[in-house]
Write a structure and sequence with these properties.
The protein contains four helices and six strands. A six-stranded mixed sheet has the order 1-2-4-3-5-6, with helices on both faces. It comes from Halosegnis rubeus. GO terms for molecular function: protein-disulfide reductase activity.
Length: about 110
């Protein structure tokens, strides 16, 4: 598991086998399915870093090119795709770039 330091918290990059473990351990987890070459994914990096510091949710990334089966399992057919997990279960899927406020509001619905 690779971590990008963002101050108080981190955005973790996961391998496919780790995803089930992490989302099962966390009350709320926001997962971004991304690719290295995706411009929108790159633009989302500072947003994810902020979310990892400012919310109670775990924020993780899964590269769909190296974890294709996992991406298919969770409906990540384009990048970026965000899946919000609550108590280990996917509850919301968003495709494409998202505003920080939208993701924050979504997380707050499940952590408040």
């Amino acid at each position: 598991m690779e971590a990008q330091s963002t101050g108080a918290s981190t955005v973790r990059s996961l391998e496919s086998g780790e995803l089930t473990t992490i989302v099962g351990e966390e009350d709320v987890a926001l997962v971004e399915f991304y690719t290295e070459w995706c411009g929108s994914c790159t633009q989302m990096e500072p947003v994810l870093a902020d979310l990892s510091r400012e919310t109670d949710a775990a924020v993780v990334k899964v590269d769909i090119e190296t974890n294709l089966e996992t991406a298919i399992e969770f409906g990540a057919q384009s990048t970026p795709t965000f899946v919000l997990f609550v108590s280990g279960n996917p509850v919301k899927r968003l495709r494409g770039s998202q505003r920080k406020e939208s993701l924050t509001d979504l997380i707050k619905q499940y952590t408040a």
